[in-house]
Amino acid sequence: MTSPSNRRGAGKQQLHLAAHFPGVNNTTVWSDPESRSQIEFRSFAELAATAERGLFDFFFLAEGLRLREVNGRIHDLDVVGRPESLTVLSALAGVTERLGLAATVNATFNEPYELAKRFGTLDLLSGGRAAWNVVTSSDAFTGENFRRGGYLDHADRYTRAAEAVRAARALWDSPADDGQFRFTGKHFDISGRFTLPELPQGHPVVIQAGDSAQGRDFAAAEADVVFTRHGSLAAGQEFYRDLKSRLPGHGRSAESLKIMPGVSVVVGDTDAEAEEKAAHIRRQQVSGATALGLAQLLWGIDLSDRDPDGPLPAEDPVLDSAVVQGRVRPTDPVGTVARWRAAAAENGWTLRETVIAQQNRQSFIGSPETVATAMDEFVQQRAADGYILVPHLTPGGLDDVVERVVPVLQERGVFRTEYVGSTLREHLGLPRPKGARSSGAA
Amino acid sequence: MSGYVVGLELATDTANPGYYRRVVTAAEAAGVTLVTLSDSLGAPTARLQLDAVGVAGLLAPITHRIGLVPTVTTTHTEPFHLQAQIASIDFASQGRAGWQVAVSSTQQEADQVGRRQPAAPAELWREAGEVIEVSRLLWDSWEDDAEIRDELTGRFIDRDKLHYVDYIGRSFSVKGPSIVPRPPQGQPVIVLELAEQAAAAVAGSADVLIVQGAVQRPEQRPAQRVLADLGAAQQVSPDAAIDLHRAGWDGIRVAVRDAADLTALLDRLLPPLRAEQLVNPRGGTGRTLRNALGLPRPNNRFAAPGATAAGPADGAAARRVEGALQ
Ligand SMILES: Cc1cc2nc3c(=O)[nH]c(=O)nc-3n(C[C@H](O)[C@H](O)[C@H](O)COP(=O)(O)O)c2cc1C
């Protein structure tokens, strides 16, 4: 039964692919004539259908619980407004067959009982395709939309998140006959009766996104997949080594955690054409107004009166700034500003040109062959186990990848030519959790 | 025109999604107007119970006419999440979402969530009233034409058409605006079962009231519908349903708990109602639940009165619904 392509791929690492629905930031281009609704269900169904046609592992939705603000006013330059993740994925469960369905849901502003029930329900509705991207972002700004209000400091956020995951698992593992559970920890003390039967996956897949040391520890202890921000090959390898080396300490194998950077891809007939397309997309992504907005995020001061086609701001960045809310600031504003200044001086760039050059460089650009080669190389050289692909257009932004790059990966024997399993765990090659109350675990 | 409303209460001890698909698509084909999906944190009777919002989501793209009304408690949940979930069902179903309001008063429910102690029904329904109010504000927190995609100024939205709700209730506060744009119906349909006396405190803010038995019709606002809850479908005679119509009720709701109930609903109860032309299974593809109930699409309470009276806001939303149907 070994197909030629399997033989060609013998001994090679297999890639995993996911489709990220375009987000509410300037990566998503809304001004393009091909850009369609970010909120109509049809857009979600179409991108999911594309991902399933491409035999992707999963479809991914991000989450933000308060609209972003700049200078105390709602940010108006980027796509904004999206449906609640788990509800949309439940709807997609009815119109897809094999595609994994991953929802980002905050662990600070939700309680374990509800999380366990809602993700468990999605797993049942989809026949074992649910995943939970556990995020911890929480601040007083977001808290203003919630009963619990306030915020947790960084260390507490991850202990709460880890406990929320363990509590949810206690519910998923509750005895099949009566569902009785009890979980006691620092953040939660809950008991009662869980109303779902054994889940198809035992436990939905857990994804983690966050880069700090605590974030990495949390991932090593609890996660099945890590969603990272992409770096160079070397940076990717360093992250990969670091995270996988933490696994034995938790009694886990290297294969039990998949590392998937978020990347964007631009495909052209030739490498030169793809580069041209990519440059055009970057200009679309950074209008003059957006350039000012991004500079403001970095500098932490009000730049609304500046000219994006003029020079970089002369001021030093302000470290403790509330000018921009609801968005993560670059980690090292002083160093980044210094780098921007050097690049602008060397090339004679305006502020907007500098922002375009420094921001959002797509990760893989080229002909289908070039892109497939690079994607494959990162995986074979242990910088990633696969990718979460972030398109710039809704909903057609992954058509090129599915139609032109996936066949090349399949030809090389590094990507599936059909779905073999039916659950997301099976697609990802993840073991069934030991604690699960299933007969299948034996 | 709206017909006689036939509601279906789906309360079953199963976690099998295929069951929900089969029952609800059959009910839709037979002319049922809406389905309420039971759910409670405590699930005192059923061993197995799926999350009702998830089930409504599953049903949204595979049905076309029937209203989808999950039950969600206001007691141990976040109002901000709750309204976003219902708005999201409204988008996925192209305007067929409702929400049946419930409260959770038992010790078991409190222990499962672990956030607060049980309270008396009067207090819980007072809070439910606040959650209804803040949900309605959040559904209106985006005006219908807030999305502008204006290339000239680089603006995706007109932020003057997004509104903080700045709601301060007794047990919670919400800043807003919602993360979800205004849903296709403007305001999804709020359904209230007057099962316990304390619930009457919020009757005025519901779009549909469900009264146990058919004893007495409560006070009714103009844009409000009242249904008689008649219990298990097996026990309801078609004549009783027709008599209630003659007596001025807007409709009925019957429960399907097992296969015999489903057979009774499909084969015994609905055929006479169709023969009397009280229900029409062909009517209404592409219409919203509000249309089916004969309820208007509400103006946005934040929009300038002139703007909505002239109709551009409704027009934009109607276009969005039409676009979704293409
Ligand atoms: C690739 C990536 C994607 C993320 N996506 C989301 C998201 O959709 N919603 C959210 O609230 N936070 C998101 N986060 C934020 C993380 O959950 C986390 O709060 C943040 O990275 C700070 O944690 P850290 O200090 O460990 O990095 C994301 C983070 C990363 C790295």
TrEMBL record, chain B:
Compositional bias of kind Low complexity: 303-316
Keyword Oxidoreductase among record annotations: yes
Biased composition (Basic and acidic residues): 317-326
Region (Disordered): 281-326
One Pfam family named in its UniProt record: Bac_luciferase
Molecular function (Gene Ontology), one example: oxidoreductase activity, acting on paired donors, with incorporation or reduction of molecular oxygen
Luciferase-like domain residues: 12-222
Highest taxon above the source species: Bacteria
Keywords, comma-separated and alphabetical: Flavoprotein, FMN, Monooxygenase, Oxidoreductase
Parts forming coiled coils: none
UniProt xrefs under InterPro entries: Diverse_substr_monoxygenases, Luciferase-like_dom, Luciferase-like_sf
The protein's name in its UniProt record: LLM class flavin-dependent oxidoreductase
Naturally occurring in which organism (per UniProt): Nakamurella aerolata
Origin organism lineage: Bacteria, Bacillati, Actinomycetota, Actinomycetes, Nakamurellales
